[in-house]
Amino acid sequence: MSINPADYLVHFSNVLLLVSYSVRDMLWLRWFAVAAAITNIPYFLVQSDVLWPPVLWATVFTGINLIQIAKLYLERRPVVLSGEEQELYDMGFHSMRPREFVSLLMTGAWRDVAAGHKMLTEGDSVTSICIPIRGTVKVHRRGQSVATLGPGNIVGTSIALSGDPSPVDATIAEPVRCMCWQVSDLRAFLDRRPELRAAVQKLVNRDLAKKVQGLVAA
Questions:
Q1: Per-residue pLDDT averaged across 170-194, rounded?
Q2: What is the dihedral of CA 177, 182, 187, 193, to 10 degrees?
């Protein structure tokens, strides 16, 4: 049985599809899918009756994959953090990729808070979570000083996530530069990015352990 040389294009295209199914990287999978579709197009064109519907659909799938490939390349561009972003990242966010960290920052905002400002009020609900990179925060319970929070400590996290009223007051002792998130915005962000929830929870647990260790040492 003689084989039409054009048939080799179909065989080669299907080999490329098999390879695409075996790779784990989404970028390579899409490149192999594009190559398979492009390889098939000449086969459809050289038939005695040109097979226009398969040509059309192969072109559509190729276009969709090329758009997704462009998005993947954009997502994989190196991320350059600003000085303050790098400072905060080094304080405990290494479990996140820099691009994930930047997306988390985009849901919050940098704030400069003057001394004397209350970040938490005993008995009130917690609406925001902050991490200072400079300055200190004094924590009081029923008028008694219980802790001093500095750069890298999280103000309000465990309380906010539990939904309970704050059991403490937290007042700025020295002017603070901090990253703050509205609790509602942070929850919505984590609901859309469940893969980051574990990283954020790990950061919260580590911060809580550090605070407990500080209380024991005191």
A1: 91
A2: -50
